[in-house]
């Protein structure tokens, strides 16, 4: 599913005079928007002025955020406490609820973010940025119908709103209706020529249709309008990547991270480029940032395993493959990468062969993979090893059997010889027991017997 991204910025305050009447300015979460007033909302909200204590605490929270942003070290818990403190001073400060929603969403706490946005809208229905953020969240969750309904609701209240038109354009782009998407982006730009949201939809539409020159032209225009938007630098990187300019693409992705270090899409692209260049330590760094934002990202765990394998940390690699499989049992590449380690490192060719075959099956079978896919060569290689080991084992077993047979034969021969010796002892001269028998006589040479005495 295509995810709709946006630059989420905290809601700032207007001058103190304006605050006394209505609170805060309209949001710039997705870039400047047309400030179309809602008469009914304005009258209702003017009846609930914000206390000076709440205003001071709110401003303090914003200053803390700006300081942390410049230091590139966002302390979300401390910021949440500061905005919560502003709410405790005055529960009507809808903008504090909105900013708490932004902070929660940046940390991946989507349910909490939704609740804050809805609370902000309850307190201040004219806070249309909260409606837009809710719509984007519904869109990213796959509830396109719910997102469209929210965008249309905003347009009913604010017929000239550019942002909602741009968001609707993105939905049509994702559905493949580029004509409708471009019509809506142009309509949005007519109402707000500086709508970077509309420009980004236009860039993606041109990229989808391989119109790289037009995409680059719009992207450079967007960067001039808002150089602090990481999505625009990222878009330039994607265009350069499609043009084959890997080095400059890498620089654009890094520029996006300079603007916002936790911008996940650029970490993803840089991780892939690092893996392709076999720069495994760099890949590990980007993949860890991705998992910091989304610990249940199975593909990131798989790629981290590949990085560990490249660095020779095979046990860590196997752990990451196990984690990836737990998160997504249908991720076929887990079997391929695990098999390679078992084949090349762990001397377990039989198990490796099973996993190679499992990968092929999960990938759609042999017909679904190109004939030159590496897995086929790996499978043939491991099968040779399996057969060689099988033959060696058979020969070893045969040798052991022959040795055992020889031992048995020798034992039988020795036993037979011993039995034969016991039954037939060697012959010897017998001596009379009493010793009284006549003494043997010696015959003379003549043969005559001598006379008795």
UniProtKB/TrEMBL annotation:
Residues 407-440 have a biased composition (Low complexity). GO terms for molecular function: protein O-acetylglucosaminyltransferase activity. It comes from the Bacteria. Residues 1-29 form the signal peptide. GO terms for biological process: protein O-linked glycosylation. TPR repeats lie at residues 94-127, 162-195, 230-263, 298-331. Residues 403-453 are annotated as: Disordered. The keyword Lipoprotein applies. Keywords: Lipoprotein, Signal, TPR repeat. Transmembrane segments: none annotated. This is Adventurous gliding motility TPR repeat lipoprotein GltE. It comes from Myxococcus xanthus. The gene is gltE.
């Amino acid at each position: 599913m295509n995810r709709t991204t946006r630059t989420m910025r905290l809601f700032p305050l207007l001058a103190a005079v304006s605050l006394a009447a209505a609170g805060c300015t309209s949001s710039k979460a997705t870039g400047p928007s047309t400030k179309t007033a809602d008469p009914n909302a304005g009258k209702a909200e003017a009846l609930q002025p914000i206390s000076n204590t709440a205003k001071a605490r709110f401003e303090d929270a914003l200053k803390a955020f700006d300081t942390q942003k410049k230091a590139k070290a966002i302390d979300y818990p401390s910021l949440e406490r500061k905005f919560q403190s502003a709410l405790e001073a005055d529960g009507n400060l809808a903008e504090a609820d909105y900013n708490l929603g932004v902070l929660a969403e940046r940390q991946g706490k989507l349910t909490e973010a939704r609740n804050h946005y809805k609370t902000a809208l309850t307190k201040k229905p004219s806070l249309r940025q909260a409606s837009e953020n809710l719509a984007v969240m519904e869109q990213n969750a796959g509830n396109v119908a719910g997102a469209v309904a929210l965008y249309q609701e905003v347009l009913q209240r604010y017929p000239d709103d550019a942002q909602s038109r741009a968001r609707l354009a993105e939905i049509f782009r994702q559905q493949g209706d580029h004509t409708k998407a471009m019509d809506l982006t142009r309509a949005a730009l007519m109402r707000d020529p500086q709508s970077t949201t509309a420009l980004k939809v236009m860039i993606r539409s041109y990229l989808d249709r391989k119109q790289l020159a037009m995409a680059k032209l719009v992207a450079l225009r967007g960067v001039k309008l808002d150089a602090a938007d990481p999505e625009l630098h990222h878009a330039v990187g994607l265009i350069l990547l499609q043009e084959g300019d890997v080095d400059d693409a890498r620089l654009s992705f890094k520029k996006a991270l300079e603007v916002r270090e936790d911008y996940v899409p650029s970490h993803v692209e840089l991780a892939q480029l690092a893996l392709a260049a076999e720069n495994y330590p760099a890949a590990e760094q980007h993949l860890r940032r991705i998992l910091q934002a989304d610990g249940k990202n199975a593909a990131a765990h798989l790629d981290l395993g590949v990085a560990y394998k490249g660095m020779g940390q095979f046990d860590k690699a196997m752990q990451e493959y196990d984690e990836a499989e737990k998160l997504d049992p249908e991720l076929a590449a887990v079997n391929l990468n695990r098999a390679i380690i078992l084949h090349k490192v762990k001397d377990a060719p039989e198990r490796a062969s099973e996993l190679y075959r499992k990968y092929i099956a999960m990938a759609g079978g042999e017909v679904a993979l190109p004939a030159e896919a590496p897995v086929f060569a790996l499978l043939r290689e491991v099968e040779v090893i399996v057969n060689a080991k099988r033959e060696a084992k058979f020969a070893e077993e045969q040798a052991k059997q022959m040795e055992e047979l020889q031992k048995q034969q020798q034992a039988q021969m020795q036993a037979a010889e011993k039995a034969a010796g016991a039954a037939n002892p060697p012959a010897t001269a017998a001596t009379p027991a009493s010793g009284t028998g006549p003494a043997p006589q010696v015959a003379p040479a003549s043969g005559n017997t001598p006379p008795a005495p």
